[in-house]
Amino acid sequence: KALKLKKENKVYLLRKNIKIK
């Protein structure tokens, strides 16, 4: 469960980065 959350968090951060850029 923790691993899945970590992966989702990574994707969220990536999306945020793309949005900011």
Oligomeric state of the chains present here: single chain
Low-confidence stretches: none
What would you call the shape?
rod-shaped
Distance between the termini: 30 Å
| Largest beta-sheet characterization | none
Strand content range: under 5%
Counted by DSSP, the helix tally is 1
Percent helix among the residues? over 70%
Please identify the structural class as seen in this structure: mainly alpha
Q: How much is the radius of gyration in Å?
A: 9 Å
Nearest-integer average pLDDT? 85
The number of distinct β-strands equals: 0
Write the element-wise H/E pattern from the N-terminal end onward. H
What this model shows, in words?
This protein starts with a helix and ends with a helix. It is an all-alpha fold and about 20 residues long. The radius of gyration is 9 Å and the shape is rod-shaped. The protein is about 90% helix and about 0% strand. It has one helix at about 1-20. It has one helix and no strands.
Report a brief summary of the structure.
The protein is built from one helix and no strands. With 21 residues, it is mainly alpha-helical.
